[in-house]
Amino acid sequence: MKPVEKKSSATTLNDCRGGISHPKKRLQRRKSFLLVFSYPDCTLRENTQPSMAKATTTLDWCIVRLGDDHNWWISETSDPVRWDVDGLSIIDPRQVDHLIEVVEPLRDYGFDQDLFESAFVLFRIDKEEKKGSVRLKRVKDSIFDSDDKLFALADTLDEENGPYADLLDHLTRCRVKMLNDLIEFESKLTVDEVEDELREAQNADFIEGNAVHTFNELNSILDYVPEGYETDEDNDDKDPDDEDNEDIPDLDAEEEEKLKNDQSLKWDGDDDEDEDEDSDDSKSEDSKKGTERRSKKRS
After folding, report:
1. What is the spatial distance between Cα 170 and Cα 107, in angstroms, rounded to a whole number?
2. 69, 76, 108, 186 — which has fewest CB within 10 A?
3. CA-based Rg of the chain, rounded to a whole angstrom?
């Protein structure tokens, strides 16, 4: 029995051409593979880390205390990560009303109310805490239009380029414009001059270890007048009686005694009062003498 010849299942080049393949000239075809990789829309590091919810905190409330300087300071917040309470001050309602009043004249010199409001986080009283502290609750309101008593916290998260830093620069420029308009300086007052002078005062406070309260920082700008000058507003604030007293020269003891004894300077009623005093004195002397005589007789 003849052995059966096994045919190869491999397809040769000749088979493709329709010819007969030769066993010694048979070509072997290599198989090739194309690998395709697909990545999701995230990085490999994100895939390797377990998924977890991000913790988000917001400034919803704060606890304030009254300091020895009679200003309010924050002792605790709902967002301690971003808000460091060390030396963190807050403006009380009375101070807010004062700021609203003093910025009013700056409207003629480009004051931006929206910029002012965006620089503060507003709160109102929620409840009283222990040891004289007060809990404040955040509110969305307008400093200028609200009827509530509001506390204002300066947004100082970005001390260099934040909204409060922009407000300080804006108020300084408005104040300089107003001073140049009201006072005739030898040379125009510049923003750099004002900022340098205010910075020196703040550095002195820091050296002494004193934290600068937000209200005092704003007032140093809004009330700034160069040394040796004064505005019309300063004159209006003066007491007229004080101005009259400034015109009266000081007198020494001798001149003051002469004026007292000068009869031409006395009012008509003064003579009657003097006579009444003399009569009263004489009566008292007579009564004393009578008492002495009676005592001698008894003895």
Report:
1. 12
2. 186
3. 46
3-state secondary structure the chain: CCCCCCCCCCCCHHHHHCCCCCHHHCCCCCCCCCCCCCCCCCCHHHHHCCCCCCCCCCCCEEEEEECCCCCEEEEEECCCCCCCCCCCEEECHHHHHHHHHHCHHHHHHCCCHHHHHHCEEEEEEEEECHHHCEEEEECCCCCCCCCCCCEEEECCCCCCCCHHHHHHHHHHHHHHHHHHHHCCCCCCCCHHHHHHHHHHHHHHHHHCCCCCCHHHHHHHHHCCCCCCCCCHHHHHHCCHHHHHHHHCCCCCHHHHHHHHHCHHHCCHHHHHHHHHHHHHHHHHHHHHHHHHHHHHHHC
242 — pLDDT class (breaks 50, 70, 90): low
Instruction: Answer yes or no: are the C-beta atoms of 72 and 140 closer than 8 Å.
Output: no
Structure tokens at 108: 């003629």
Q: Decide if 179 contacts 225 (C-beta within 8 A).
A: yes
Q: Dump pLDDT digits (tens) for 120-136.
A: 999 999 999 988 899 99
* CB burial string 205-217: b at 16+ within 10 A, e below: eeeeeeeebbbbb
Could you tell me which residues come within 8 angstroms of residue 72 by beta carbon, excluding any fewer than 6 positions away? 64, 65, 66, 89, 90, 91, 92, 151
Write out pLDDT tens, residues 220-239.
999 999 988 887 665 555 55
Name 66's bridge partners: 72
> Which residue do the tokens 């988000």 mark?
56
Whole-model pTM: value is 0.61
> For 89-131, how does the pLDDT look when each residue is reduced to its tens digit (9 = 90+)?
999 999 999 999 999 999 999 999 999 999 999 999 999 998 8
